[in-house]
Design brief:
CATH architecture of the largest domain: Single Sheet
Number of strands: 18
Order of helices and strands: HEEEEEEEEEEEEEEEEEE
Shape: elongated
Largest sheet: 18 strands, antiparallel
Distance between the termini: 103 Å
Helix content: under 10%
């Protein structure tokens, strides 16, 4: 009786219901329904190689470490959970674009780095597939933004530096300077004041390198209004 119990225990523990396995699956349409299948066309269908979740009452599906390739050249290598990208992973495109970072339920979520084929690069926080939180972007033309993001765009406090030495530090909204900000120039000139949709709008002070100042209103990036004051050093 004792030996029988030992044999039964081994059989139960080795059952596919209790353990993951590795294999190959194809994601394709059968009878108007998309799903994972063990057979498919490697040149036409999405192909997965890696760990699988298997069981008597479940369809086999990606779960664990695996690699998925697409007919258009796109590829993902990383962790899976219940058919979705989940955990750490790397996604590449045929044009050279690349994402390395965290996933949650199939979306970019957490810390990640996205590099575009033109040299554009983002390093920072993601939420539900979008740039959200603190991040740093470098552009091909040499510009650099460090600050807050919301829904893919700079939103909140941030700093934008240009290759010519100009630097804006202040508030952003939907990707543009919006609110209170400070713009400095390499020759020592400086603007402190309000912005709207990327332009100087509202109250502001412009200081020249020789000490002269303009205090007053601005509209669409230009001096505006009757009340202005010019102060000599």
């Amino acid at each position: 009786m004792k030996h029988l119990l030992i044999v039964l225990s081994i059989l139960i523990l080795s059952s596919p219901v209790m353990a993951d396995e590795t294999g190959v699956l194809f994601f394709r349409e059968v009878n108007d329904k998309w799903g994972w299948f063990e057979d498919g066309n490697k040149d036409r269908d999405v192909k997965y190689i890696g760990e699988l979740k298997d069981g008597i009452f479940e369809d086999r599906q990606p779960n664990g470490q695996g690699t998925i390739t697409y007919p258009n050249g796109k590829k993902y290598v990383g962790e899976w959970k219940n058919t979705k990208k989940h955990g750490q992973g790397t996604k590449t495109w045929s044009n050279g674009d690349k994402y390395v970072g965290e996933y949650k339920n199939g979306e970019y979520h957490g810390q990640g780095t996205f590099t575009w084929n033109d040299g554009h690069k983002y390093v920072g926080d993601y939420k539900d597939g979008k740039k959200n939180g603190q991040g740093t972007v470098t552009y091909p033309d040499g510009r650099k933004y460090v600050g807050k993001y919301k829904d893919r765009l700079p939103n909140g406090q941030g700093a934008l530096t240009s290759p010519d030495g100009r630097k804006y530090v202040g508030e952003f909204k939907d990707g543009k300077p919006n609110g209170q900000g400070i713009l400095t120039f390499p020759d020592g000139e400086k603007f402190v004041g309000e912005y709207k949709d990327g332009e100087r709008n509202g109250q502001g002070t412009y200081t020249w390198s020789d000490g002269r100042k303009y205090l007053g209103e601005w509209k669409d990036g230009k001096y505006h209004g009757k009340w202005l004051q010019l102060i000599m050093k």
